[in-house]
Automatic annotation (TrEMBL):
PROSITE patterns linked to this entry: ENOYL_COA_HYDRATASE
Record keywords, A-Z: Fatty acid metabolism, Isomerase, Lipid metabolism, Lyase, Multifunctional enzyme, Oxidoreductase, Peroxisome
Name this polypeptide is given: NAD-binding 3-hydroxyacyl-CoA dehydrogenase
Domain 3-hydroxyacyl-CoA dehydrogenase C-terminal intervals: 496-598, 636-721
InterPro entries tied to this protein: 3-OHacyl-CoA_DH_NAD-bd, 3HC_DH_C, Enoyl-CoA_hyd/isom_CS, Enoyl-CoA_hydra/iso
Domain (3-hydroxyacyl-CoA dehydrogenase NAD binding) ranges: 313-493
Species name: Nitzschia inconspicua
Length: 743
């Protein structure tokens, strides 16, 4: 057999042109690949090429910051667009290149990154790599052949699953579906394996390896079944389905020649790029980055921010619903966690929850046995605050009672080291009043850390700054919140902070709809579900527990308590919400009855069933002059004051910027992502002029209801004819108030 001496292999290393470890496919990276290919074409000594993104990522996709300039070119969709070295042309150049190209993938190959890999002739990867087309999450669809090449490689059904859910697959799955030719073994080097492939490929025919020139495997009949099935599962276009429906249309074109299919894909890409839902989704994506932007640099080598925190002690006081969830999060982040509860039964319940949750991670393959044991070893249950003497951080999560909380902080002030950060998970109570229970020198280390239920699942955390909270503590908490995998939004101190403060009119008005309108509980929920809110307001209240809101109203002095009159009760007030708790003991799903009935035999006791008793109560407490409300009126009466309260939070410096409020509602309250958050919705769907007019109408109708009085900021935006987002972006907001004066 004649011996073969391979020509040299050119390695194109993405990390040479980008400092971003995600290797976004911005201009510099596209140019690098493009020009490397041009040079390799000319150089006869080069026989094949490896595209390599470094050890951390191949490429996590397009550079989203370029999208706004792409939007301007949406009209050129049919002819391509004016972008330098456009990705769609780059992938064609790679696929049709005269010499073999191997993608050497370590880490993420997502979006445009996977589209580049799919156009290569061979793909090898490490075991820890992820492959996906997550574009629907940022309001677009793949636009560089992903919807055409992926079905040809993994089959149409699998490709649809990946494209419509946007969920990536791991290397094992990718190998199983032939997306990857080879997964390197633990003792192999990715680049050495890629080198062998690249040399061997010099001998092999290239035509067979050009994915775009291959046929899809499914018959016409099979395709029809797959597409019909997929279409049935998608949400309607009006309920957030625009992006996935466009993606489906693009995939449907995959049985056509690649150039035709890619044209359909590009048209659908631009449709989603310029569509309202796509813009709202991208706003939500960038809003998280804006919210998480560090307000400064945390001190170097702070124990909480060390790489290895396995020796760092932290604590949670209160092992109830929230405390045990927060404990889970801190254990997963690698800390040693003391879990303290005054009552043995509550402590045992919290520990049982942690055991059960950790075991379920193991059973679902999300955690190894060894890791699970490490977590359990790091858990220190206790009934004594004295055990917290060497903690770097303590989160208080006991019942919502100021007196009890203050008492705990008085003790913690004495027990914990002077550098220990003290936090409260209170939902509504005054952080400054709580901070007043610790010595002056400790107050800069005091803040709120408001998780959402269930704390180990929900992504959002409000970082609540008191008057004395220092910038250093804020920086530490921002970084720590990110490290534990949560989205931290810095907010100011007031009743309910941002999230629960905006919920005050929401809770009151939904119940008042029952008393003032001819509406049933399911009818009100239906209006909000149609709007796109994840759970109807009454379903959500039942899930959280009606006693929680009731106790908060008691703390506010809205409900008479222990014989004391309800001194602060607003004159227009939904009594029914208190009555069903105090008189009818309907506490929500946990007691089998709340605004709905629940029956163990139906949906494991979680399915809301219309309640005759509640229907009768609604009739009994109906106010005079009841009338029918349209669904639109329901939405306006409830959500317009919620947005108005958002404006007031901005005005008072409780929220730093409008997009922070959107992040809070998107990730803490089930606001529909395709409506971008309440402030985005007001700016872009409702229109501020209409919002102002309707608030004025409601305010005239209900002069005793302060949350309908339009905020000054809203008035200013309408007078200037700008959105509230622009008002802040243009620097028109000058008030150095609240947290804005500190950050
Ligand atoms: N439940 C929610 O949805 C939610 C969401 C966000 C924040 N929060 C806030 O979190 C806190 C806890 O709420 P929860 O729902 O977990 O309540 P919970 O009743 O489930 O748990 C409270 C725990 O505190 C313990 N406790 C009471 N007094 C104590 C003391 N002196 N020392 C130590 N432990 C004591 C109780 O035994 C109980 O285990 C409250 O401030 C609440 O407002 C609740």
């Amino acid at each position: 057999m004649p011996s073969f001496t391979p020509k040299s292999v050119l390695v194109v290393d993405f990390s040479t042109v980008t400092t971003n470890p995600l290797n976004p496919l911005g201009l510099s990276l596209r140019r690098l690949i493009w020009q490397s290919l041009e040079n390799a074409e000319q150089d006869d000594a080069i026989g094949s090429i490896i595209l390599y993104g470094g050890p951390k990522n191949f490429s996590a996709g397009a550079d989203l910051t370029e999208f706004s300039s792409l939007e301007k070119h949406s009209s050129t969709a049919s002819t391509g667009f004016d972008q330098t070295f456009p990705l769609i042309e780059l992938v064609g150049k790679i696929e049709n290149f005269s010499k073999p190209i191997v993608a050497a993938i370590s880490g993420n190959a997502l979006g445009g990154g996977l589209e580049v890999a799919l156009s290569c002739h061979y793909r090898v990867s490490t075991l820890n790599s992820q492959f996906g087309l997550p574009e629907v999450h940022v309001g677009v669809i793949p636009g560089a052949g992903g919807t055409q090449r992926l079905p040809r490689v993994v089959g149409v059904a699998k490709a649809l699953e990946m494209i419509l859910t946007g969920v990536p697959i791991d290397a094992k799955d990718a190998k199983k579906h032939r997306l990857i030719d080879y997964v390197v073994l633990s003792d192999e080097s990715l680049l050495e394996v890629a080198q062998k492939y690249a040399e061997w490929a010099q001998l092999m025919p290239l035509a067979d390896r050009r994915v775009g020139q291959q046929q899809i495997r499914e018959s016409t009949q099979e395709l029809q079944t797959i597409f019909e099935f997929a279409a049935k599962k998608l949400p309607p276009a009006s309920m957030g389905g625009e992006g996935v429906r466009s993606a489906l249309e693009a995939v449907k074109a995959c049985s056509r020649p690649i150039t035709d299919g890619s044209t359909v894909e590009l048209q659908q890409f631009f449709k989603t790029l310029s569509g309202d839902q796509g813009k709202a989704r991208r706003h939500g994506f960038f809003a998280i980055r804006k919210a998480q932007k560090p307000v400064g640099s945390p001190p170097k080598n702070h124990p909480l921010l060390q790489k290895d925190v396995s020796k760092v002690k932290v604590a949670v006081v209160g092992a109830g619903l929230m405390g045990s969830g927060i404990c889970m999060v801190l254990l997963k982040a690698g800390f040693q966690v003391h879990l303290v509860d005054l009552y043995k039964a509550s402590l045992d319940k919290g520990v049982a929850f942690l055991n059960g949750t950790i075991q379920s991670y193991v059973q679902r393959g999300k955690m190894t046995e060894t890791k699970a044991q490490t977590l359990l070893d790091a858990l220190r249950p206790s009934q004594r605050l004295e055990d917290l003497s060497s903690c770097s951080l303590v989160v208080e999560a006991v019942i919502e009672d100021m007196k009890i909380k203050k008492k705990i902080f008085v003790s913690l002030d004495k027990i914990t080291p002077p550098s220990c950060i003290l936090l409260s998970n209170t939902s509504t109570l005054d952080i400054d009043e709580m901070a007043s229970s610790v010595s002056h020198s400790r107050r800069p280390l005091f803040a709120g850390w408001h998780f959402f239920s269930p704390a180990h699942v929900m992504k959002l955390v409000e970082i609540v700054l008191g008057d004395a909270t220092s910038l250093e503590t804020t920086c530490i908490m921002q970084q720590l919140t990110k490290r534990i995998g949560k989205i931290g939004v810095v907010v100011g101190n007031c009743d309910g902070f941002v999230g629960n403060r905006l919920l005050i009119p929401y809770g009151a008005e939904t119940t008042l709809l029952l008393e003032e309108g001819v509406a049933t509980v399911p009818a009100v929920d239906k209006a909000f579900l149609k709007f796109g809110i994840a759970l109807g307001p009454f379903q959500m209240a039942d899930l959280a527990g009606l006693d929680i809101g009731y106790n908060i109203r008691k703390q506010r002095g809205w409900v008479s308590s222990n014989g004391a009159p309800a001194k602060n009760k607003p004159s227009r007030y939904p009594d029914l919400a208190d009555i069903i708790v105090s008189e009818y003991k309907r506490l929500g799903q946990k007691t089998g009855k709340g605004w709905y009935d629940y029956d163990e035999s139906v949906g494991k006791g979680r399915k809301p069933l219309t309640s005759k008793e509640v229907d009768q109560l609604v009739q009994k407490y109906a106010k005079k002059g009841q009338r029918q409300f349209s669904e639109q009126e329901m939405i306006e009466r409830v959500l317009f004051p919620l947005v108005n309260e958002g404006f007031k939070c901005l005005e008072e410096g409780i929220a730093k910027q409008p997009s922070d409020i959107d992040v809070i509602y998107l990730h803490g309250y089930g606001w529909p992502v395709y409506r971008g958050g309440p402030m985005w919705w007001a700016d872009n769907e409702v229109g501020l002029m209409y919002l102002l007019k309707r608030l004025e109408d409601f305010s005239a109708q209900f002069p005793e209801t302060p949350y309908y009085v339009p905020s000054e900021l809203l008035n200013k935006c309408v007078t200037l004819g700008v959105t509230v987002e622009d008002y802040f972006n243009l620097g028109l907001f000058q008030g150095q108030v609240g947290i804005r004066s500190k950050l």
